[in-house]
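pls read this stuff:
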Amino acid sequence: KLVCYFTRSFLFLSLQTFEKLLIANRGEIACRVIKTCKKMGIKTVAIHSDVDANAVHVKMADEAVCVGPAPTSKSYLNMDAIMEVIKKTRAQAVSLNESICCSFISLLSLQASEGVTFIGPDTHAIQAMGDKIESKLLAKNAKVNTIPGFDGVVKDADEAVRIAREIGYPVMIKASAGGGGKGMRIAWDDEETREGFRFSSQEAASSFGDDRLLIEKFIDNPRHIEIQVCIIIVVLFQVLADKHGNALWLNERECSIQRRNQKVVEEAPSTFLDPETRRAMGEQAVALAKAVKYSSAGTVEFLVDSSKNFYFLEMNTRLQVEHPVTECITGLDLVQEMIRVAKGYPLRHKQADIPINGWAVECRVYAEDPYKSFGLPSIGKLSQYQEPLHVPSVRVDSGIQQGSDISIYYDPMISKLITYGSNRAEALKRMEEALDNYVIRGVAHNISLLREVIVHPRFVQGDISTKFLPEVYPDGFKGHKLTDLERRELLATAASLYVAEQLRSQQFLGTPRIPIAKSKRSSWELSVRLGDGIYPVTISKDGTSFSVEVDGMKLNVTSEWNLASPLLSVTIDGTQRTIQRLSRNASGDTSIQFLGTVYKLQILTKVAAELSKYMPEKAAEDTSSILRSPMPGAVVAVSVKPGDTVSEGQEICVIEAMKMQNSMIAAKTGKV
């Protein structure tokens, strides 16, 4: 391993590429590019908005320049400002945010006049594949399987309804320049088509500066599978002037676990594909890339039905969020390959050299509340943050740190959590452990949902599709449902924590506070409230262990009881659990993260529990006449005015958060 490491390091250093590279992006992907640049000896320039002045990618880069205020249209998508920074810093190469790639035509003149190279495909390929309408036509010409639909631009809502009727419901309405689930709506009837056209066009204009839409048949209950490709056409750079092209496909990624058309869990390889289907998809992916003279790393996305028929969805001309799982099973550094290709070097590998070694799983950790539509954005400051890097075979790609702010302006992703194993079972087991050991405080997050997905029997068996979440949780995600044994384990752990803290409070620098009044108490009678149940618990101490009686059953709970640590490893009758105590107060209320889900408990002594029934309860707020946004965001439209009478289900306003628009409707009939 050491020989391989030093050999790779030598190759990085000896490879002549660029002296300075500007990264026109933010967050985890910018940090990812900077890491490889450092290995290759390339200096980096970061751009940032004013609110991102202390962001991690800014601190990692050798230079950093502010390009505008918080909104992306005025900073990270501000082409004039970025062009000025390129000239000012004399960067030889630039890695761009894909959202501006399609309109960054001026880069070509800069490239010709000042020798600036774009890390990625040429503008023609970006424009062709960035436009879903044009890419679909190109795919057809390249004999790639495509989804039936309308191949032109939809002019208005009336035309959208007409086209949808001709195709047959359900249909998918998409932004032509879209990606990341933005500007996409499924419509099952005329009314949903009109509403989908309105919101999709508004989101597309806001996110991509292009409100054009297309409509195609919605493939019900498919799997979402991607093929990573790496292409080089060696006529684009001076060093290699011939017209010979090399093409590779780097196997597939399974991305079927989604919510709102955005991926949540990815893995490589797929449990569904056989070698023949994999080869056919890979060859079509390469054929499409060659058809547009693609020259970089890119991703071709397919939908696959239950009979293994596959249809072209789109091609992403960027380094995708889920690329780490491909790197894990192939051993390639895709950022390094992109930089080498941009400089004009030929690919070093043949198709036969591309392996599938082991299994990799990626979970997208978001600052979201998974109990609201499987994840509505949350904002705030990360008061405590600790990545589970001590767990073996774990990789975390993030662009934040403790103290970072999650704001309404950008995507709420916290990190990409990746685990690797020799097989799928091993990779999933490590992911389960990594999620339990991930400390995130200050914002809501989706750890509970991710953990439930990867341990669910259907997921473990590989029985998944893009409808996995609504099928498994038809009434919405409610958190982990405790078995009787798990409930007893949680009650015993909570009671042990309570007693351990009571004992610690009697100590001062390891000595009893009042030595002359030493307590010889060795057992406690407690009352623990969990949900709607109240459970009597008897607990006694023996060294570092507690013997706890719950429901007439005794459990032995052992731990080091380091109450200052955010993570607590507890062994319950031989079963190891990693828990987190998130909060507590003097009234006995405590919150514990157990098996990924946060449970609220109240722990009282038997006497206090008997007296608590005399305490008045605070009346719940009457919110029946209030419309309250389920997430932070900007009000972009108000459909009513004071004095209007509205009916149940009528739109009141539209909230935009993280570039997604959400219609807020009245819960009952009334007057505004």
The first strand starts at residue 20 and ends at 24. The chain has six domains: 20-119, 121-147+222-357, 149-218, 359-473, 484-504+522-613, 634-671. The radius of gyration is 28 Å. The domain at 149-218 is CATH 3.30.1490.20 (Dna Ligase; domain 1).
